């Protein structure tokens, strides 16, 4: 396999280092803006040198961001090259275009490193689908948010300090609002559900609530009741109905989710044969992420170009009812749905996920967390 590598940052450099030691693949060209010298690969700023090179059969996109990654990946597929990417925003946003295009062109298109970093989550979902129907996917998918929540809960660190530290450690996205507002997890659950259920969710209907408004007082409230807050995604299918959302969720101490430390991820599937299976590991970082990019290249070499075929577009119905912790301005709806008071906050009666998120949209300074 001859690889054209787009990007030579955290992930790109890791891919280069891992493939250097292998006989079955070689990074032939690297497209990046930095002045890098590599003994065995041509470095260029011109993507056409990769796209128009017929000896390059696979493009690894490790640039991140939507543009120009989208234009480059699309052009690579149109040029008949396999594509491997770790870019969750790109694949979740352009799923309906890129997957059918890859299928039409008869090339491979894989993105295992896009969800869970070094955890072989999407490739395990692919294997799982061979013998069972998956009913539910989701879990802790963002290392930055887990790091912040864990630091606040276990060490009493202030939110802003914990976020700064997560940025310093290289876990956060270029714009950390993407992490704390739940967008990164939103991309990851869309991708996971699409692949697990073999469909394409209507993205506009997938809901998200983040952790950006959590305070030390909220955390104290949870600790006093033996609860731990985590940012969690959920994707479900049952009898042709699909649900998908991202939201802070409270887990009793002693549950696996409550114990996930630092920047780790814990992602779970529930299938009709296997029942519940969870996958734990490093959700970000150079070598864990590059490991799964190279695994995808090996999978393509062994004939596994796709996780699943492009499925039909489906509507999302988030009418599931849950109880929520809510701290924010009171109003008539909240008063009518309050079941109890928790030191400056309320706990609701069961309300639909969609109604609770609609309330949050009208109260942007509030913080909500579902009771698991
Ligand atoms: N910002 C992401 C995270 C990186 O914190 O999980 C890995 O996708």
Question: Would you kindly provide a written description of the structure presented here, covering whatever features stand out?
Answer:
With 372 residues, this protein is α/β, with parallel strands linked by helices. It is 36% helix and 27% strand. It has 14 helices and 20 strands. Strands 7, 9, 10, 11, 12, 13, 16, 17, 18 and 20 form a 10-stranded mixed beta sheet that branches. Helix 1 (10-20) links the parallel strand 1 and strand 2 (26-31). Helix 3 packs parallel to helix 5 (95-105). The longest helix has 16 residues, at 286-301. It is globular and about 65 Å long. The relative contact order is 0.15. The model has no long low-confidence stretch (mean pLDDT 97). Bound molecules: L-homoserine. L-homoserine binds next to helix 7.
Main attributes of the structure:
36% helix; six-stranded parallel β-sheet; binds L-homoserine; single chain; 20 strands; alpha/beta; 27% strand; 372 residues
Care to give the gist of this entry?
With 372 residues, the protein is α/β, with parallel strands linked by helices. The chain contains 14 helices and 20 strands.
Tell me about the biggest sheet? 10 strands, mixed
**Estimated helix fraction:** 25-40%
Basic shape: globular
List of distinct ligands in this structure: L-homoserine
Q: How would you summarize the topology of this molecule?
A:
Layout: E1 2-6, H1 10-20, E2 26-31, E3 42-44, H2 48-51, E4 58-61, H3 69-78, E5 82-85, H4 88-93, H5 95-105, E6 109-110, H6 121-129, E7 134-140, H7 143-155, H8 159-168, H9 177-180, H10 183-197, E8 200-201, E9 207-208, H11 216-224, E10 227-238, E11 241-252, E12 264-271, E13 275-282, H12 286-301, E14 313-314, E15 321-322, E16 324-327, H13 332-336, E17 338-342, E18 345-348, E19 351-352, H14 353-362, E20 367-371
Parallel strand pairs: 1-2, 1-4, 2-3, 4-5, 5-6, 8-14, 9-11, 11-20
Antiparallel strand pairs: 7-10, 7-12, 10-11, 12-13, 15-19, 16-18, 16-20, 17-18
This protein binds L-homoserine (HSE).
The site of L-homoserine has 11 residues, from helix 7.
């Amino acid at each position: 396999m001859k690889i054209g590598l787009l990007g030579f940052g955290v992930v790109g450099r890791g891919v280069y280092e891992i493939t250097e030691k292998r006989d079955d693949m070689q990074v032939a060209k690297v497209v990046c803006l930095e002045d890098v010298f590599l003994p065995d690969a041509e470095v260029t700023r011109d993507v056409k040198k990769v796209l128009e090179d017929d000896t390059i059969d696979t493009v690894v996109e490790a640039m991140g961001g939507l543009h120009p990654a989208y234009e480059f990946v699309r052009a690579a597929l149109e040029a008949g090259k396999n594509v491997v990417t770790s870019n969750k925003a790109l694949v979740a946003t352009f799923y309906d275009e890129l997957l059918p295009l890859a299928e039409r062109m008869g090339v491979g298109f894989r993105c295992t490193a896009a969800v869970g970093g070094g955890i072989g989550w999407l490739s395990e979902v692919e294997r799982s689908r061979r013998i069972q129907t998956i009913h539910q996917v989701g879990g802790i998918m963002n290392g930055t948010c887990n790091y912040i929540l864990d630091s606040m809960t276990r060490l009493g660190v202030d939110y802003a300090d914990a976020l700064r530290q997560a940025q310093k450690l290289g876990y956060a996205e270029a714009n950390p609002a993407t992490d704390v507002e739940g967008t990164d997890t939103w991309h990851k659950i869309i991708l996971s559900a699409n692949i697990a259920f073999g469909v394409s969710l209507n993205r506009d209907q997938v809901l998200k609530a983040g952790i950006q408004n959590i305070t030390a007082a909220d955390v104290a409230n949870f600790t006093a009741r033996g609860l731990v807050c985590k940012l969690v995604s959920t994707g479900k299918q049952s009898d042709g109905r699909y649900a998908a959302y991202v939201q802070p969720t409270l887990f009793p101490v002693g549950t696996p989710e409550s114990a996930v430390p630092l920047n780790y991820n814990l992602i779970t599937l529930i299938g009709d044969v296997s029942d519940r299976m969870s996958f734990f590991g490093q959700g970000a970082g150079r070598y864990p992420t590059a490991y799964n990019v190279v695994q995808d290249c090996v999978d393509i070499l062994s004939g596994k170009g796709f996780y699943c075929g492009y499925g039909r577009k489906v509507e999302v119905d988030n009418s599931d009812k849950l109880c929520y912790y809510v701290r924010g301005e009171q109003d008539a709806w909240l008063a009518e749905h309050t079941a109890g008071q928790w030191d400056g906050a309320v706990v609701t009666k069961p309300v639909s996920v969609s109604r609770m998120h609609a309330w949050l949209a009208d109260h942007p300074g509030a913080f909500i967390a579902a009771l698991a």
